[in-house]
Amino acid sequence: MSEKLAIHGGRKVKDTPFGTGKRFGLEEAKELVEALEQNTLFYHNGEKVKKFLDAFNEMYGISYSVAVSSGTAAVHTALGAAGITVGDEVITSPITDQGTLIGILYQNAVPVFADLHPHTYNMDPNSIERCITPRTKAILVVHLAGNPANMNEIMDLAKKHRLKVIEDCAQSYLASYNGRLVGTIGDYGCFSTNDFKHISTGDGGMVTVNSAEEQDFKVTHAFADKNYLRLGGIVNRDLSYLAPNYRMTELQGAVGIAQLKKLPGICSNRTAYGNKITEGIKELDGIHPHQVDEGNVCTYWFYMFRIEPSKYDCTRDEFAAALKEEGIPASAGYIPEVVYKSGLFQKRSAYQNSTFPFDVTGAVYEGELCPEAENILKTAIRLPVNEFYTMADIQAMIASIRKVACFYQKQKVAGTLQRGESHG
Ligand SMILES: *Cc1c(COP(=O)(O)O)cnc(C)c1O
């Protein structure tokens, strides 16, 4: 029998605050003071960004990475270094932050959207394959919400069609695919340290360069620094092609050094919490937990489950509203719409008063291009996951989902108590 919901005046499941904490402390302050004492905040002359990258490379077991000013900059830098240029097509995800897309358009290349797996919310390799044309130059994989995408199949496709693979790991620190960290599998991995990610330097980002060729690292490094060639002694300012200034400052590098030390703990808490939610809701009829494929580790930037509306006497929005009333900060969906529904793609205007570069490839974004992605956003409910939460907070989330699901579940057996009678 179902309990009276808080939305109907019943007792809230969660009436105590969620766990919180301070992300920054004296560790960051000490690094910042040292940065200032260097008397330079320029990455090339100071030691902080270099140390930050050394620590990052060690944590990831890689040889090369480049520090940049944002996750958006990281993606653009990877695309630029990969040689993505005018009229190229880049296959990517329709459910992502716009930071994934901006660099594609700044290179005057065009995004092509692949549909998603219904429960991992990551790009479906079969759909990626259908998107490949002679213009395709890269697959820009988004590991959404800390959950690794199907990299084996994506790498196979890339090899077969000679495409670059860029991993957008902005939401997926220390997530692993079959024992390999995401961001180390494709040609490049892109990270963000904006204030909403697992770790923050205010703003900032990193690009991993996974090629064994030092030249690929040099090209990437230069692309984030106006194509100045600063590595190895003399500075070469010969501008061979266009590149932006996406440099990270020593202040960000300093904070990053201290933040990186906290990253493993942050991620392991998030993994434990997300997996716990799945355990607690996986057998509920009509609920699909956030699917993490076997062998992978998800570091949950958020947790997102889906409901099957046909099995409930409520809409997705009503379900989310009921959870909110129970004291759980749930929200309906993630981004309001798949990204190709935004004005930029609908009006094909990457630049004001222009339809370039869409004209070059003839790209149009009409209709239901990625039906599964659109369905995900219509039936998903998102829960925040935070390293400062406690297991009791997570238990309350689970209890609330169970309570709301139980209340709204359609009765299957004729003659059983109707909902109305049980909470009369
Ligand atoms: C946050 C984010 C970005 C952009 O990062 P910024 O640092 O805000 O530029 C790119 N891709 C994804 C998937 C993100 O979540």
TrEMBL record:
<protein>
    <submittedName>
        <fullName>DegT/DnrJ/EryC1/StrS family aminotransferase</fullName>
        <ecNumber>2.6.1.-</ecNumber>
    </submittedName>
</protein>
<dbReference type="InterPro" id="IPR000653">
    <property type="entry name" value="DegT/StrS_aminotransferase"/>
</dbReference>
<dbReference type="GO" id="GO:0008483">
    <property type="term" value="F:transaminase activity"/>
</dbReference>
<keyword id="KW-0032">Aminotransferase</keyword>
<dbReference type="InterPro" id="IPR015424">
    <property type="entry name" value="PyrdxlP-dep_Trfase"/>
</dbReference>
<comment type="similarity">
    <text>Belongs to the DegT/DnrJ/EryC1 family.</text>
</comment>
<keyword id="KW-0663">Pyridoxal phosphate</keyword>
<keyword id="KW-0808">Transferase</keyword>
<dbReference type="InterPro" id="IPR015421">
    <property type="entry name" value="PyrdxlP-dep_Trfase_major"/>
</dbReference>
<dbReference type="InterPro" id="IPR015422">
    <property type="entry name" value="PyrdxlP-dep_Trfase_small"/>
</dbReference>
<dbReference type="Pfam" id="PF01041">
    <property type="entry name" value="DegT_DnrJ_EryC1"/>
</dbReference>
